[in-house]
Structure formats: structure tokens, C-alpha cells
Amino acid sequence: MKPIGLKQRSDGEIMIIHECLSCGKISPNRIAGDDIPETIISLLSVECNTHRKFLNENDLPEIRLALFGNASM
Fold first, then answer.
1. Is the pLDDT of residue 64 over 80?
2. Residue 57, domain member (yes or no)
3. Alpha carbon distance 5, 66 (integer Å)
4. Domain presence at residue 10
5. What is the phi/psi pair of residue 22, to 5°?
6. Measured between alpha carbons, how far is residue 4 from residues 39, 41, 71 in Å?
7. Per-residue model confidence (pLDDT) at position 43
8. CA–CA distance from 27 to each of 62, 64, 68, 71 (Å)?
9. How many CA within 13 A on the CB side of residue 68?
10. Which of 43, 34, 48 is nearest to 63 (CA)?
11. Which tens digits make up the pLDDT trace of 4-61?
12. Burial of residue 15 (number of CB atoms within 10 Å: 0-12, 13-18, 19+)
């Protein structure tokens, strides 16, 4: 499974979108407590969103607030 982007659920929870390298199946997965927030933010980059755009950089303040509790970081 390769992380290919982020998606935010209607309840505000952020999901990491993975793609299976064998079959191409797309699967959303909950963020784990030991995931590194900066790495999660990096999934907004163009490199990770080559096939589809689940979120865009305009969503960054809301994602930072959800991950860090502070949108200005």
C-alpha cells in the first residue's frame, strides 16, 4: 500500500488514502496516534497527488488545526 493523499470526512476526521501497488485498490485509513503529523501534511504535495486530488493546499489550515491544534504552524 502506498499513501497517495488525504481526505477529510464530514465529521472532520482526516483519513490517509492508500493505493494497493498490486491491484490499484484505493483504501482510506484512519490516522494512527503514532503517525508523524508533518509526514501526513506532506501527503498534500503534488508528488503524492499525481493521480487524484482528494484535498488541496487550501485545506491546509483546517488539516493543521486537526493535527496540531494550531492552524498557524
1. no
2. yes
3. 16
4. yes
5. -90, -50
6. 12, 12, 23
7. 78
8. 22, 22, 24, 27
9. 15
10. 43
11. 888 878 887 888 888 899 998 989 999 888 888 888 877 776 555 555 566 666 777 7
12. middle
Distance separating alpha carbons of residues 31 and 71, to the nearest angstrom: 18
DSSP state at residue 48: G
In a domain, 73, yes or no: no
- pLDDT for 25 equals 92
Residue 63 confidence (pLDDT) above 80: no
Query: pLDDT at residue 71 above 70?
Result: no
Number of folded domains in the chain?
1
Q: CA–CA separation, 32 vs 36, rounded Å?
A: 9
Domain that holds residue 6: 2-68
Specify which residues 18 forms β-bridges with: 3, 27
Q: Which three cell numbers stand for residue 23?
A: 491491484
Angle CA(21)–CA(67)–CA(25) in degrees, nearest 5? Answer: 15
